Amino acid sequence: MHKKLQKYIQSYDLIQNTNTYELKPNGGMIVLINQNVKCEVLIHDELFILDSFQAILINAYEESINIKSDENINLLAVRFKGAGASFFYEEFMDELMHHGKEPVYLQKDILQTFDNLESELDTYFQSRFKPSKSQFGVMRIIELVEKNHGDYDMEEVLKIANVPRKIFDKVFRWHVGLALKSYAGIRKELLA
Description:
Radius of gyration: 16 Å
Strand content: 15-25%
Number of helices: 6
Distance between the termini: 25 Å
Largest sheet: 5 strands, antiparallel
């Protein structure tokens, strides 16, 4: 993965050679890119269809998401760190906030092949990157929570954010898709 992207993207995970898969929560949003057969994505007991060569943006979640197909799956899961997705898909953040349990369908054919996967993904995400205009410092807060293995001091967080608590809660949820407490709990569990 390109060095610039590592601050925002946790990993590119290839999901292959199975017809079912469980995506465990990581505290960040996920882009699922389907490169093959149609599959079903179950989010909060609601079923969504992911057609061949389609991509979806899934809000941060606290419960596992299940994927299944009649044939072997050939998917790529792009796992974002905390608020990372908001720097690439800002235009969809309001929609995710109002319909948090529903994925946003992205364009088809994000990837042309699976041959030079990492390079193709790096090029795609570098072209989508938009620096935040917010003075909020959300990625610094994410880094603080990561560094402290899910623990945080609210006074320190508010000092970094430089906003009142009421505004902080709303803005953090807009960027990350989860409340800080939920995000920190997931990260604590994963880092334990």
